[in-house]
Amino acid sequence: MFVDSHCHLDMLTPVKDSGSVSEVLADAAASGVSHLLCVAVDFVRLPAMLSLVDSHENVFASAGLHPSSQVEHEPTQADIEQAARHPKVVAIGETGLDYHYDSVPREVQRERLRRHVRAAVTLDKPLIIHTREAREDTLAILREEGAESCGGVLHCFTESWEMAEAAMELGFYISLSGIVTFRNAESLREVARRVPLERLLIETDSPYLAPVPMRGKENRPAFVSHVAEAIARERGMPVETLAEATTENFFRLFKDARRAA
To answer: 149 lies in a domain?
Structure first.
């Protein structure tokens, strides 16, 4: 069985149309996906997202503000901690730095990330980190704020092997998405081959980044099996072995997540 360690269920078309995640979860289960982590990108939509997944014991949630999200008022550390105390919330994020789009001033992004890290350290909840073209600053802030005490994951990883190594030295996991299946992603496939199996997670980041052979479609948690199959091929191992390992890794990192009966 697979775990989709990062998806945005509330952004999927069938969920927005029906107000229910049942169809998406049924498709996921049919593809061997046993558990999902629904990741927040802001605090405005968080209550509705939590309500959407609250009755599904195999769906967990996070609380955080994406580095590119533009808001009128920046959440304080206390705001983040309060949201993260909800019983469904097993992680803080996604947070991080995105210097590719630069839709939020970099100094604002950096202070935002620091508040999230401090909240995660205080609550001992793992971080979900988004980083794009901001390797040095991301690692520096994680180190300076003591993120190794709570750990976390660099999600939808697209950076260098050197950054992966540095993050793992801080106790972080590396999560790979459908990008690993893209034709021009050979450097990422090298990372997929080299990351120790005990530090690897898989995700869809749905509704974005549908993997081959689903390119052009809205991504779904059900498609995480294609991510797993691609990584397993690169590593020369049975996909069942990779599925078991990444599932165990998920529950090791997100220790507040409980396996569904």
So the answer is: yes
Question: Contact at 8 Å (CB) between 218 and 13?
Answer: yes
Indicate if the pLDDT at residue 261 is higher than 90: no
Residue 37 backbone dihedrals phi, psi, to 5 degrees: -115, 115
Query: How many domains, the chain?
Result: 1
Tell me the Cα Rg of the chain: 17
Tell me the whole-structure pTM to 2 decimals: 0.97
Give helix 77-84 / helix 106-123 axis angle, nearest 10°: 50
Is residue 258 a part of any domain in this protein? no
pLDDT in tens, 165-213: 999 999 999 999 999 999 999 999 999 999 999 999 999 999 999 999 9
Task: List the domain range (segments joined by +) for residue 75.
Answer: 2-253
Which string of DSSP letters, residue by residue, matches 72-118?
A: SSPPPHHHHHHHHTSTTEEEEEEEEEETTT--S-HHHHHHHHHHHHH
The answer to whether 120 touches 152, Cβ cutoff 8 Å, is yes
User: Is 260 a domain residue?
Assistant: no
What residues contact residue 164 under an 8 Å CB cut-off, 6+ apart?
A: 154, 157, 174, 191, 194, 195
Q: What is the CATH number of the domain that holds 113?
A: 3.20.20.140
Query: Could you tell me where the beta strands, DSSP code E, fall in 133-206?
Result: 152-154, 172-176, 200-202
Q: How far apart are CA 195 and CA 202, in angstroms?
A: 12
Asked if residue 259 belongs to a domain, the reply is no
